[in-house]
Design a protein that fits this description.
Pfam families: Glyoxalase_6. This is Glyoxalase. The chain is α+β, with helices and mostly antiparallel strands and 156 residues long. The protein has a single domain, classed as 2,3-Dihydroxybiphenyl 1,2-Dioxygenase, domain 1. It is built from four helices and six strands; from the N terminus they run αββαβαβββα. A four-stranded mixed sheet has the order 3-6-5-4, with helices on one face. Strands 1-2 form a two-stranded antiparallel sheet. The longest helix has 11 residues. The protein starts with 21 loop residues before the first helix and ends in a 13-residue tail after the last helix.
């Protein structure tokens, strides 16, 4: 039997992160990184969640060799946990400095990658390792590429 039903449509990717120090994590990601607050909810037993808008979302699935290669390019050694979150920004150097001032630990400073982005690696609140990246090519240059981005890291 052929299934003629339309393919499911995903409308949003939402990454849910447990943070023991909720206030510090919200202050870091909302105030220092600049993710706008979309909603906040509270419930019984001091249950709290803040939903922050993070622009366009992608899910990048890398095999172990790709993960190792990205670590080598960005940091120079294997450091990433199984899940890492990346944020595209307009100015990787200024954003990295602002996030370090807000309490992140810099693992690696902004580094030019072979795929023409400027990437830094940070340990952030809520036990997240993050990459801050700035595309060095224009949107037209990105659109005109052949789609083969060796190690292209717009990761999750």
């Amino acid at each position: 039997m052929v299934d003629d039903s339309p393919a499911p449509v995903v409308r949003q990717l939402r990454l849910v992160v447990e943070a023991a120090d909720h206030e510090a994590a919200v202050a870091f990601f909302r105030d220092a990184l600049g993710l706008p607050e979309e909603a906040a909810f509270s419930g019984d037993g001091d249950a709290r969640v803040v939903i922050l808008e993070a622009g366009r979302a992608t899910l990048e699935i890398a095999n172990p060799a790709q993960k190792r290669m990205i670590d080598e390019v960005e940091v120079g050694r294997q450091v990433a946990p199984r899940i890492r979150v990346a944020f595209e920004v307009d100015d990787a150097r200024a954003t990295t400095a602002r996030l370090v001032a807000a309490g992140a630990n810099e693992i690696a400073p902004p580094t030019r990658t072979p795929w023409q982005s400027l990437n830094s690696r940070l340990d952030a609140p809520a036990d997240l390792q993050i990459t801050v990246f700035q595309e060095l090519r224009t949107p037209d240059e990105l659109a005109g590429s052949d789609g083969a981005h060796p190690g292209r890291d717009t990761e999750a």
